[in-house]
Amino acid sequence: MHMRRKPEVLAPAGNLRGLKTAVDYGADAVYCGGKAFGMRSAPKNLSLADFEEGARYAHERGSRVYVTCNVLPRNDEVEALRAYLGQLKDTGVDALIVSDIGVLMMARQIAPNLELHVSTQAGVTNYQAANALYELGARRVVLAREMDLQAVRDIRARIPDDMDVECFVHGAMCMAFSGRCLFSNYLTGRDGNHGECAQPCRWKYSIVEEKRPGQYYPIEQTEEGAYLFNSQDMNMLAHIDALIDSGATSLKIEGRSKSAYYIAAMTNAYKTAVNEYMRQRGFEDADGAVLKPFHDRVIRPDAPMPDWLVDEGVDERGFAAMLAEPDAIMAQSDAAFAGVPDAAARCDGDGAGSCSCSVDSAGSASSADSVGTADSARTADSAGSVDSAGTADSVGPVGTIGIAGPADSAARSTRRKANAASADAREIAGLSEASDGWRHALAAPAPPVVLPDWLLEEPDKVAHRDYSTGFYYPDQKVTQNTDRSAYFRAWLVVGEVLSWSASEGGRVTIMSRNKIEPGQLVEFVLPGAPPLAYTVPESGLRDENGDPVPAVNNPAHVFSLPCPHEVPVNAAIRSRTKKPTLKAA
Length: 585
Fold this sequence. Notes:
Helices cover 25% and strands 18% of the residues. The chain has 15 helices and 21 strands. Helix 1 (16-24) runs parallel beside helix 2 (48-60) and helix 1 (16-24) runs parallel beside helix 9 (260-280).
């Protein structure tokens, strides 16, 4: 079996500086586009020389570089793309991200030394498509964003172990979630599938009555009109264990048009979360040393009981019980992954059946909104910040397998509807459930990974729209915000570190971005660590000539200030805004 070292944190970069920032803040890999064929035209993107320098920088630090070639090329672009692939193969990058099957086959011929990853634009929603792409040379699929956790498990369980599953975990979501949107092309002539999207899904809309031209009415009762298609952003930080346990091997942060600060903060957050996962799941110790090989918790259909279940104290009887009661065990898995504490463990979807598992029934059933977000042990408020009250005590060895309480009634209803739809499909095809052999993949429950509060607060410290968990939880789907198309901004970048010196008890030299004044509380964003909170001293601020100044009040100028804590070069310095604002999209 192909054993992965650990889940990959995949960060975006729109230029060489962004690439290096991502690597510095812990990215296992960085994806970026070139000057053409890359689905994002707003960022500057990277030249061939940039790719060479970036790949060298990443490799020296144990990271990888992937190049996006995921446009849908037109006839007159094919030969230019062929030449471009021939240039890319010698830059030292590690993989190409493609969506067009013709480009995939072309890349396989021209750049056989590079891995081929299939973009989310290809709309992979099932294991048959993934296996077909594997046969064509792909070693990774980026799943369509409308996949829920069960779909991720089902795909992971039925594709080769050496094929990676990449899933989005954070950032903006398009109205067309698989990424094949013609809205911009239709309204503006700017092709979203060539990186020129005008984002009309974020625009304000009103209606007009045919016989009253020029009289515009808001679709909702607001003075501003309505933003019909304005999707929430994704934030899966608090549920990173659910996604990894379900078989995701690469966790993708969206944002090649974002700032270096955004890249640093979100890369650091997800990398720290993965490290916590590896430690709390027992794969690594506190220093990152490997204790046992990494694996997900997906049970492959018709496969023998995996060794890791034996190591967890599960015997053949308990394994057989899991296979015999798939709906119940998945209900318990969903609850465990969502961090639902102290819920009753039952082996029947209705709570009335009997099972050969020995289970603890001391808890009480969770409420209808307990899975995914809302009132679970880890909850999200309206701005997406998440509480980490869940504890590992809710799951433990119970008879032959440790399980957590049942999923809520909404999740069971969703599952039953899906099963009914599958039954309808089998009936149409003339297949019985026994003859077609289909059943959902299982995932063995485990204690929730508990993340520190500072980490769960990080997504609120970058500009963002309202957060959601995408489509991963069927009963808590992403929605749109129809009353605004703007970003929340509660924190500002006020500077970045140019150097630190131990002289004079410690002094940091910075490039200013916004005002810094005595008594102001700032935070230095540090790689692999919580942010360093620091109160600016009442005196000691100097300009680039060394002359005293009362405050740092000129952006893009060099200043220095006393700081006894050593801080790394390029570390972002941020400060809470005096009044949280909405930043125009």
